[in-house]
Design goal:
This protein has 150 residues and is mainly α. The protein has 6 helices and 2 strands, in the order ββαααααα. A two-stranded antiparallel sheet has the order 1-2.
Length: 150
Amino acid sequence: MERNGQDRRSVAGQWAGNLPGPLALLHRFSITRYLLASIISLAFDVALFMVLVAFAFDPGWASAAGYSAGIIVHWLISSSFVFPGKARQGTALQLQRIGFVATAILGLGITVSIVSWMTDLGILPVIAKGAAVFISFFAVYLTRKFGVFR
């Protein structure tokens, strides 16, 4: 995909070339970039989750709302930083977005199920959310890497 006459991959590569040694190495691996994107989107997710739980929302619904907010942030980061140059054009871009949303729904289902199940067992919502984050992270990463952004 071109932006101002430059391939997005080369723009991302030039940006990475300006990073100090260890950070340039970290940028080289998509799992590392995905982890950083996930941490940023997780901050949005957990913040909204905790606010809603503090206001006595059901933890399952609160996890769904937080995860949904995180999805939006994650798309913005993933399409430009994690998988640079992998964004499609036209119809292919629409299909890629549908794939991204489908994997987000997978992660949402995993998250809500785990949080609801664990809180029903009497486990603290924040611990349940942590377990859900761990499991859904790997499930969604693998489906995006080998499916959506292949």
